[in-house]
């Protein structure tokens, strides 16, 4: 073996040794490296578990390490697999169920993705149980599912924002409302928005809805008013449900009211918080729902919450912990606005323009007034606003300055009631103390013979005839007593029970409307005292007997008669405030101050703010409104016409009810609810003479003529005699006219116009004799002459006639032009032989001696008189002398030849 | 239809239960890993010490073997380098091979130098 070969073998052996040593070195290093890698894997996995897989998945650091290190990537993949194993049931079985559930409970526009659903307004039907507001994902899972919340008919939604999240919050709210618009029938959603931070309206894309009042943006400073409005609606809805026997206050077809409150995260004042809690507690049952954005309030009713933790990340009470919520992207503004416009157009088309008087009316008067009277009087957001007169609101108080629309409102009220309740169910007594004839059209007129069938009495131009108001109250009190007696007889307490117990009886509800009723209390006199007492009585007892007062006035605070006697106002729990009306609502309730024209505040809660309902009252008094209704009702409901009392016109004797078959001499029309004349008792008894006092010639003659003509009608010709003595030439023609008329009626008339009057007539007669003696004092010049041989004067004989005549059926109906002149005639004998008198333009103080010493409260006024019969009266009656011109007309004899 | 809100929340409860289960698993694993990391640290210490020992012994051994051989310019005295493919489980086996390989090298070197003696 050569040297070279031996060297090569030595090198090879050294290389083998080097290899062995290298493997040993490598094995030792690899053992260390393996231990290090094992720890690194364990540390990585530990860090993932420590922060949770969900958080680790969102960690950029973890992601970078996984991307950079294949070993860690391997670990990560293993952890993912472990996670998937934990969520196997959720991912495979439950997640599809969640999607199916939302698809089922939020069908169509309520739960659709994207925005194709925006194009068509809704068609109605039951509202979905859920509404999509975004998407959600379980923290560990990649698959998203829809986030949906309940609202209509169930509860409220609260959204808590955070810095930078307002845009997302607005998007959620707008999307939610848009889904409702695209689901519900047009008009079935009313949106109220209150934003503490915005003077101009938030959610501007929805503003086309405001034209039909489907959306109302409220003043940031008037949250209290908004809550009061909602509370009032809730209360009324509950009342309506009780009345209709419904289980829920929100009836089928009632619109939903969604109120969005944008707060600033600060707590509201305690008063508003309590009111908001009350609305939240009771609202869902009445279709009132809240979306509370940054409004911290405790709500004792179903409420779901979305709480933003970042600009577009949130959590939700629907999904609970560990679920990330993201709002759906904002909808295209133009498409939302187009949807809102579409809804607005359809509502406008459906409503057919502004609501009119005809919309207040029922098709036929078929309602029953057993429990209450109920009618719409106007509209709010297109929906009718009702007025109720019943147990809870027996009487109404209406206030508003002149020209604010009170009369129009009264026409709307009367029209609504008349179209619903027949005369068997409703009787109206209408009194207007204003100068004018606002209710006169409800009675038959010369141009329009129709009248309102339910009206039983219409009083117009009674501003100076406060006695007529008093008479109405007396009538109502008497009716109260009659009903109370009937109720007692049937052992019941209320009208509704009385109607059941006495089904054949006529027990309509009575509504007495007194416009400008403060005029009734304008003086400090007996009328005011009596009227205040009677009104209080009717107000207290009318509720149970179905007698309702509707009192209208410009300013109720100035009625001195009620100071310290609040009972009347307290009983008027229904308050109606016209624009700028003062004091009719509660002190803190200023809703009337901001009312636009043709609107009213209707409040069934004694004027407290939460009872407010603002309604637009359609024109009810122009031609073609109420008059048409009246004509229709008149044609459909045959009844007797109402009594019209028009203070501006003298009643015609011919048309007086008592003149048809008079029971005695008629002196004039008594100011009373019934068409009643003052009738003098003329039996054969001492003192049955009449003195007419005063200088009003026409009135004095009217009284005497009425008496004479009615007596002439009472007796058949030949059954009595008349004497007509007129000593004043200027009045002779009128006396002749009366005598002529009496003769044409077949009676004998002893007409004297000269000194023959002094002969007088015997104080005895075989048949009744009525001496009509105008201007008795004018005959004194003849009567004072003494005739020999007895030297008795005509005056003495006249006194004897007055004293002795009545017992022998000779009665004097004379006219003296003053109390003093009557005294001259009567002398020292006093007034015992004047049993009754009618005073015209004579001051009350002059009449004391004629009225048994009592103070007579009377100030003369044109075409009015007072009548006192000492045998029957405690106080004088005010009467209106008849217009006798028709009665004096002599019928023309038709020449048949 | 049952109350969809209650149903929705009931279904979501499945996810919450899964999250709870997974969270408990992660907590348990985190505890286990804490122990494991402690053991792994010990193993690293042991392996590092062993590696240092092996490196020192092998370096010394190589020095002894190649001492006085620098004059033999035909002999390749490149020191050994760690073999990255070596199996750590065969470390002792590799160490056991060192003496036989060294003896084999000395025999081959003596023959290559004959008739001279080893330096």
UniProtKB/TrEMBL annotation, chain A:
Residues 382-587 form the FtsK domain. PROSITE patterns: FTSK. ATP binds at residues 400-407. InterPro entries: FtsK/SpoIIIE/SftA (IPR050206), FtsK_dom (IPR002543), P-loop_NTPase (IPR027417). This is Cell division protein FtsK. One of its GO terms (biological process) is cell division. It comes from Actinokineospora fastidiosa. GO terms for molecular function: ATP binding; DNA binding. Keywords: ATP-binding, Cell cycle, Cell division, Nucleotide-binding. Pfam families: FtsK_SpoIIIE.
From TrEMBL, chain B:
It comes from Actinokineospora fastidiosa. This is Uncharacterized protein. The lineage of its organism: Bacteria, Bacillati, Actinomycetota, Actinomycetes, Pseudonocardiales.
